[in-house]
Each structure stands twice: as structure tokens, then as C-alpha cells.
Amino acid sequence: MTAYFSFRKLITPYFVRTIYTIGFAALTAGGIGWAVWAGMRLNAATLPTRLGVYYIAIGAGILIVGNLVWRMICEFWLLLFNVHGLLTSIEKNVRHESIEPVAVRQVISEDAKSQRIRSEQKAPSVAPQRSVLGLSS
Question: 126: left (phi > 0), else alpha (psi -120 to 50), else beta?
Fold first, then answer.
């Protein structure tokens, strides 16, 4: 319950999915209804042919394009909430790694220093460079 009041747990993604389902059903029913209504008016000859064809095309457009655009809008909102979830998980991982004890960090840094010193001591000596003719410069 504390996660709810501190906004650590989001409930809006569930609402977005529910609203998407309701919108999808409404757009599908509206598009099919518009096309069927126009078809029935064309059949009864109470609607001019050209206008009836336009109405059927509008119904098909609502059915296809309307649902596609509605899906994109809802996915955009879900994307924003998914970004929030990813940032929250990154924050938890960073906090977990930064709580590492100070003594462990000191031991690691001392090991790194000793390895660097050993690698510097083992570095091969460099012979003086000579000129092309073998004469030293």
C-alpha cells in the first residue's frame, strides 16, 4: 500500500489498456455500423450512389485507420510508463551497487594500485636508438 501512495507502483497502464479496449470496440462498431448504414440506404435508394460509396469508404477508413491510430496513441502512453519502469529499475540497481562497503572499495583500489606498480616494474628496458648507419646520435 505504501508503494501506491508514494507513486512507486503505477496503476495507469491498466487504465490505458482498458481504455484501448473500449476505444477499439467503439471504433470497430462505429466503422462497421457506418458502412452497413450506408449500404442499407444505398439498397433502399434513399441515398445518392456517390455519397453512399463515400460513406462506405469512410466506415472502412474508421475501421482500419481509426483503429491503427488509436493503437499508436495508446502505445505511446504505455511507452511513457514503460520508460518510467525502466528508470526505476536502473535506479534500484545503481543504489544497490553504490551501497558497497567502504572497506571493500579500499581493498579493490589497493589491489589496482599494486597491480599497476608491478606492471611498471616489469616493463622492459628500452635500448638507446641508433641512427641508420649505426652511429649514435
Answer: beta
Instruction: Output the nine-digit C-alpha cell for 37.
Output: 448504414
| 127 burial type by CB count under 10 A (0-12 exposed, 13-18 middle, 19+ buried) | exposed
Q: In the structure grid, which three cell numbers stand for residue 19, read together?
A: 481504455
Q: Cell triple for residue 108? A: 579493490
Q: What integer is the mean pLDDT of 79-107? A: 71
| Domain parsing of the chain, residue ranges | 22-83
Do 99 and 37 touch, CB atoms closer than 8 A?
Answer: no
Mean per-residue pLDDT, 28-41: 94
| Phi, psi angle pair for 122, to nearest 5° | -85, 0
Query: All 3 cell numbers of residue 32?
Result: 462497421
Determine the length of the chain: 137
